[in-house]
């Protein structure tokens, strides 16, 4: 498979149409491509964060997230697949389990900590941006609402993973007191 096709040299890219046998061409400046790109950025940054994690029990969780983000991107690109609707509830259970071990939140905390935790906090901001892009797209075109629910819960999940990573490294959180 060739890495370069030259089909995007004029500022367009191919997406799937409702008739899966055909691809459609759309501008790379479209809201849909912007949403897909933001999901890709979040996915890539999660991979970077994982490479810095000292607590390796988190890495398999990140790989699963990355697989799901590929599904989100594929769905946004027109591929007719379904995401598991139970993913947000599964993340909520894991958040609750990690939260039982973490210091109780009484204030906002400053993002940071160890390398892995800090990068996970940053990844959460990429996920939030992807969510905003998908919401913007949904105001103009039909978007599967499960994608927005997933991305919203995912940012909470990655926030908790960042806290958990720092906790496992013995790094104290810094409270923000306005």
From TrEMBL:
What does the record give as the organism's lineage?
A: Bacteria, Candidatus Woeseibacteriota
Read off the InterPro entries from this record.
CblAdoTrfase-like (IPR016030), CblAdoTrfase-like_sf (IPR036451), PduO-typ (IPR029499)
Pathway involvement of the protein, from the record: Cofactor biosynthesis; adenosylcobalamin biosynthesis; adenosylcobalamin from cob(II)yrinate a,c-diamide: step 2/7
Q: Which domain of life is it from?
A: Bacteria
- Which reactions does this protein catalyse? 2 cob(II)yrinate a,c diamide + reduced [electron-transfer flavoprotein] + 2 ATP = 2 adenosylcob(III)yrinate a,c-diamide + 2 triphosphate + oxidized [electron-transfer flavoprotein] + 3 H(+); 2 cob(II)alamin + reduced [electron-transfer flavoprotein] + 2 ATP = 2 adenosylcob(III)alamin + 2 triphosphate + oxidized [electron-transfer flavoprotein] + 3 H(+)
Q: Which keywords accompany this UniProt record? A: ATP-binding, Cobalamin biosynthesis, Nucleotide-binding, Transferase
NCBIfam families the UniProt entry points to = PduO_Nterm
One GO BP on record is: cobalamin biosynthetic process
| Annotated SUPFAM superfamilies | Cobalamin adenosyltransferase-like (SSF89028)
What Gene Ontology molecular function terms does this protein carry?
A: ATP binding; corrinoid adenosyltransferase activity
The reply to whether Transferase figures as a keyword in the UniProt entry is: yes
Q: Which Pfam families match?
A: Cob_adeno_trans
Q: Enzyme class, one word?
A: transferase
Ubl conjugation among the record's keywords? no
The segment(s) forming the Cobalamin adenosyltransferase-like domain are: 3-164
Q: What is this protein called?
A: Corrinoid adenosyltransferase
Q: What is its EC number?
A: 2.5.1.17
Similarity-based family: Belongs to the Cob(I)alamin adenosyltransferase family.
């Amino acid at each position: 498979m060739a890495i370069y096709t030259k089909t995007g040299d004029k500022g367009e890219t191919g997406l799937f149409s409702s008739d899966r046998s055909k691809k459609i061409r759309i501008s790379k400046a479209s809201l849909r491509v912007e949403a897909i790109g933001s999901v890709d950025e979040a996915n890539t940054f999660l991979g970077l964060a994982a490479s810095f994690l000292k607590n390796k029990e988190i890495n398999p969780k990140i790989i699963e997230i990355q697989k799901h983000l590929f599904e989100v991107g594929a769905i946004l690109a027109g591929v007719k697949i379904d995401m598991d609707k139970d993913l947000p509830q599964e993340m909520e259970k894991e958040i609750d389990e990690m939260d039982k071990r973490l210091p109780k939140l009484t204030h906002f905390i400053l993002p940071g900590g160890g390398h892995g935790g800090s990068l996970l906090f940053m990844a959460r901001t990429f996920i939030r941006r992807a969510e905003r892009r998908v919401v913007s797209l949904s105001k103009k075109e039909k978007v599967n609402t499960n994608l927005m629910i997933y991305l919203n819960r995912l940012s909470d999940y990655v926030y908790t993973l960042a806290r958990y990573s720092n906790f496992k490294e013995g790094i104290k959180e810094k409270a923000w007191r306005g």
